[in-house]
Amino acid sequence: MLKLKDFSVEHILDNVSTTFDIGKTYVVMGSNGVGKSTLLHGIMGRPDLNVSGEMTFMGSDLSELETDERARLGMFVGFQAPTSVPGLSNFQFMKQALNISGKDIAETLRSFKEVSAKLNLPDNWDKRNLNTDASGGEKKKNELIQMSMLNTKLAMLDEPDSGLDVDGIKALIEQLNEWRNDNNTLIVVTHYQKLVEGLNPDKVLVLKKDGVLTGDIELADKIFSQGFESV
Amino acid sequence: MYKNLFYRETLEPTNAFDSYYTIKDLYDYVIGDNTKTKDYHHLKHKLNNFYDGYNNNVQYITETGLPNTKSEQFNHANLHKLYNKEILWSSEPNAKHYLADLEPFEQVAFKKNTLLFNDGMVYPSNDLGIKKPFQLQILDQIKVNRNKQDEYVKLIRKTENFSNFTYAFSPFLNTVIVPSGANENFMKNPISIQYLNKNSKGILECNTNIIDIQYKTKVHLKENVKLQSGQMNNIIYIVRENSELVIDRITNDYGGFGIFDSKFICHPNSKITINFKNTGSDYYQENFYFDLTTNVDLTLNGKNNIYKGHEYHQFVHVDSRSSDNKSIIDIKNVGNENASTSFIGRFDVSPNSVGFDGHMKNENLMLTPNTKMHSRPILDIHTKEIECTHGCTISNIDKSKLYYLQSRGLAKDIAEDVLVSSFLC
Hints:
The complex is a heterodimer of chains A (231) and B (425). With 231 residues, chain A is of the alpha/beta class. Chain A has a single domain (2-230), classed as P-loop containing nucleotide triphosphate hydrolases (Rossmann fold, 3-Layer(aba) Sandwich), CATH 3.40.50. Chain A contains 8 helices and 12 strands. Chain A has a 6-stranded mixed beta sheet, with helices on both faces. A 4-stranded antiparallel beta sheet of chain A has the order 2-1-4-5. A two-stranded antiparallel sheet of chain A has the order 7-8. In chain A, helix 4 (104-118) crosses helix 5 (136-149), helix 5 (136-149) runs parallel beside helix 6 (166-179) and helix 6 (166-179) runs parallel beside helix 7. In chain B, helix 11 packs across helix 12. Helix content of chain B is 23%, strand content 40%. Chain B has one domain.
């Protein structure tokens, strides 16, 4: 689904080459500052990152595409600290993102309320301003709603567990497991063992300053018990 | 001006040619600086053939004062551009065109609760024209009513802005009185007020009106300003004791320019709420002056999206003269490409204004590097026991927000529009 070859971000990442296959789940780990978030946002095309190398998504060369064009291909990045936009309601935002009108609006609102209820968000969540006056956990849940409702084929989530309480983590795992299927791909950056266990990823990638280490869930277990120095 | 020069029999015969004057020419003529006035004799000849009401206005204004170009209120306001606006002084109106222009005016008659102001005239809808208890009282052409004149003309005071200039070129002073007996009728059924140009480009039309909200009355005005040509409005709102006034004003540009001066005389225990939106124009000033007596509750909310190449300048002056006044000024401006905006807000808090609670906020969003935006808060406070804050900002579109919206599939231009809308929300 997504192929990186000699993918570099100036001053942060050097020559990362890896493939993320369709129908698989990946966990990305690494010590602080090694470039995990930069990897996700570099793939998504954040304008201030100076990126080089090759990136292809479902056969499309990403290098010339704007962020919104990548999103419309089915790529989604979940932010570690989602941006707030006062004056724009959560549902208005979804309407804009889905570019819907007419009868579709009522149906989309119904789906929106269904997902937000499943994540234990307040009844009026659709009317609340986008990530404004919301707790860290609520913002993360909002990212999940967007991921579920947009036509996401590749979800890249940056520490989706941060700020979530125990029930929130449980709901997050349930939501992600429900979303996963043979036609999409999930990449999760996390430091949280419960999440890794709950997702049971196909592969674990460890970003290091001198390259990328790849393994299965046992690699993650080793890091959780002995630290990054051990790998 | 157009109408009044040619509409009445007493005016100059239509025997000559079209002339153009700049506003500066008219200004110089009114202040009596004949040496600067272009084609002074021709202008004098035309104006002297105007009707008496106009000459009275000019005489009054020359005695009391006129705009001062050195006035700090407008030091960002590009007055040079305004002064050089050309005004067509047509000598021979096109009769067919004139009749066609009347159409939107005629339609007012069949609307409800509607007043239309144009070049010193007031056109009420039929329902407002019916004389019955607790209805509006409309004193049009008040210059011919000596008794009322003395009461209301006193309110036209010397200022350092263009209000007096507007008055000098208004054919009449019109007054709309909302009687106490109306109670909340005009809050439940808002009055629609239209400021329209009758003519297309090149004509200057002026209105000087007084809207008098009498005691214990609540009124909601929905004002709609359409700038098709030059339009200068000088409106004085009197909000008497225990009354409430709500104004929703929308100004749209159709290729014109103008100045809208709004003065509020706020009696004790009155409440004023104003919400306004503006797109700017080739040149536009929208100014608010508030005289607060005591225990006045004032809220002014502006959300202006100034279009490409437009100008929009604003002066807000709150003069608190006695105790326990509350004032919230919250104005947001968006400047598109090559737009130019300025905001100057001023709180004058007198020594008697104990308990004044004032908050002034002006937020500006610059969409391109070619946009010019100025913001200047002035707080002149002469007493201690008050609460007063101000915050003025000028910023660009937040790139992190733009990226966030784009990452959800919104194209860049749509994402920018969404952020502008949310800023103004």
